């Protein structure tokens, strides 16, 4: 089977879900395409005086259920096809966890590794000024994603506020000092753990006896690792872009965090075996968590995955061909659109707090997040069981049905 592009792959999963609910062909056509795709030039003055002319994108997939919502990533592979795919995933994700948002995504095709803070700030401000006319507190609300963080959101918020007045609700994942929500930074990891725990309970799997391997040690991977370690679950393998480490009796997560903080290679961890990223995915373990980039589980390696559960923390880590192989092999895949939705649930809480000018405690944030994630899992798992389909197909069906219902009520094709 030829390698599908990210958007082609997302479309395969979308059509599988749509088929399960017998979605009308014309709604399939509407929902298979983006509402709006904005491509902009981002000229970046580098510290050495030279000019880097990058491409940036904001794709708004669908807003039938609420304002467009989705992160912004800085990555060389964040081209229009990838951003388009990620925007559509956001539409299904926000619907699956039933938050009142649509789906969007943004990206700049740059490698920010080694860029100074001043260069990143100029990049962010320049990009914001090129796309701010399509953003809005009730229109389109960005958030962090790969290689962007709370500081980047602060610059985005400031640049937007220079044009439109003080607008903390224009982004989520902001620093707490600017109206960010305590709990948001760890929300994706916390949501992953809640979903994994709900799955384990249903499958009579004792989480404390499982071994977990995580690819990616950024916001999502590291927060999940911290929470798993705190829950007594053994994290036996971890990697970042430069490779990883393995220890059959469990890794010292606090020590790994200290290395990551100092930007030192993870393989400097004493007593652990260095491992490359391709091998990491095939390590002996119970639960494999891709938490870095898309397209890492493919037809080429799906038969070598030793885990019995794949918890998709990254977006679109599994190709459709790999998904079928894993299913045939009895490997349970807990899909991205459900598993990693804790981030957008947390973003919804933050946005709701901003527009009400009210702040929750971290405890309330975490409790409501966990409840929402467990309920969303239960809803998807019930449909999967009733229809005898994998969790991914059921999750898409749940999301698509909600978006389609809203689109119909609003009259998606009425003049
Ligand atoms: P991040 O930039 O904080 O971290 C990314 C991590 O992946 C880093 O450790 C990096 O070294 C590693 N990495 C990059 N390229 C790699 C490679 N080729 N092999 C192995 N590791 C590699 O990003 P993040 O926010 O943690 O996002 C990770 C994934 O989770 C992305 O797919 C993102 O879309 C998804 N996600 C993020 C959020 C969120 O709230 N941040 C929410 C939902 C989903």
TrEMBL record:
GO molecular function: glutamate dehydrogenase (NAD+) activity
Cited Gene3D superfamilies: Leucine Dehydrogenase, chain A, domain 1, NAD(P)-binding Rossmann-like Domain
GO biological process: L-glutamate catabolic process
Ranges where the Glutamate/phenylalanine/leucine/valine/L-tryptophan dehydrogenase C-terminal domain occurs: 181-411
Position of the signal peptide: none
Entry keyword set: NAD, Oxidoreductase
Entry GO terms, CC: mitochondrion
InterPro entries reported for this sequence: Aminoacid_DH-like_N_sf (IPR046346), Glu/Leu/Phe/Val/Trp_DH (IPR006095), Glu/Leu/Phe/Val/Trp_DH_C (IPR006096), Glu/Leu/Phe/Val/Trp_DH_dimer (IPR006097), Glu/Leu/Phe/Val_DH_AS (IPR033524), Glu_DH (IPR014362), NAD(P)-bd_dom_sf (IPR036291), NAD_bind_Glu_DH (IPR033922)
Family of the protein in this entry: Belongs to the Glu/Leu/Phe/Val dehydrogenases family.
Protein name: Unannotated protein
Biological source species: freshwater metagenome
Lineage: unclassified sequences, metagenomes, ecological metagenomes
């Amino acid at each position: 089977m030829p390698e599908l592009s990210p958007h082609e792959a997302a479309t395969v999963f979308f059509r599988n879900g749509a088929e399960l609910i017998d979605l009308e062909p014309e709604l399939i056509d509407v929902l298979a395409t983006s509402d709006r795709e904005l491509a902009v030039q981002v000229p970046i003055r580098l510290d050495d005086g030279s000019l880097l002319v990058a491409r940036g994108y904001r794709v708004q997939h669908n807003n039938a259920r609420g304002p467009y919502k989705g992160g912004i990533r800085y990555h060389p592979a964040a081209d229009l096809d990838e951003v388009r795919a990620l925007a559509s995933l956001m539409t299904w994700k926000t619907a699956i966890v039933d938050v009142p948002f649509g789906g969007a995504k943004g990206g700049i095709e740059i490698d920010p590794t080694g860029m100074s803070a001043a260069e990143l700030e100029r990049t962010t401000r320049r990009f914001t000024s090129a796309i701010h006319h399509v953003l809005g507190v009730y229109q389109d609300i960005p958030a962090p994603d790969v290689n962007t963080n709370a500081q980047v959101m602060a610059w985005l918020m400031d640049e937007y506020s220079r044009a439109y007045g003080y607008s903390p609700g224009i982004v989520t994942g902001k620093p707490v000092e600017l109206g960010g929500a305590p709990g948001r930074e760890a929300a994706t990891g916390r949501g992953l753990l809640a979903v994994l725990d709900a799955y384990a309970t249903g499958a009579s799997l004792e989480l404390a006896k499982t071994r977990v391997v995580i690819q990616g040690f950024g916001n999502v991977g590291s927060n999940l690792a911290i929470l798993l370690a705190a829950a007594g679950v053994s994290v036996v393998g971890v990697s970042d872009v430069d490779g990883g480490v393995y220890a059959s009796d469990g890794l010292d997560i606090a020590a790994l965090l200290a290395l990551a903080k100092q930007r030192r290679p993870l393989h400097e961890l004493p007593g652990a075996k260095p491992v490359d990223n391709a091998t990491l995915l095939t390590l002996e373990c119970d639960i494999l968590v891709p938490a870095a980039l898309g397209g890492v589980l493919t037809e080429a390696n799906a038969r070598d995955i030793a885990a019995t559960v794949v918890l998709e923390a990254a977006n679109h880590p599994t190709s459709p061909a790999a998904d079928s192989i894993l299913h045939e092999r009895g490997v349970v895949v807990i899909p991205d659109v459900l598993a990693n939705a804790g981030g957008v649930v947390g973003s919804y809480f933050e946005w709701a707090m901003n527009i009400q000018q009210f702040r929750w405690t971290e405890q309330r944030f975490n409790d409501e997040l966990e409840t929402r994630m467990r309920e969303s899992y239960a809803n998807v798992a019930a449909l999967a069981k009733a229809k005898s389909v994998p969790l991914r197909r059921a999750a898409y069906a749940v999301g698509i049905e909600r978006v389609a219902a809203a689109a119909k009520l609003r009259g998606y094709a009425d003049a």
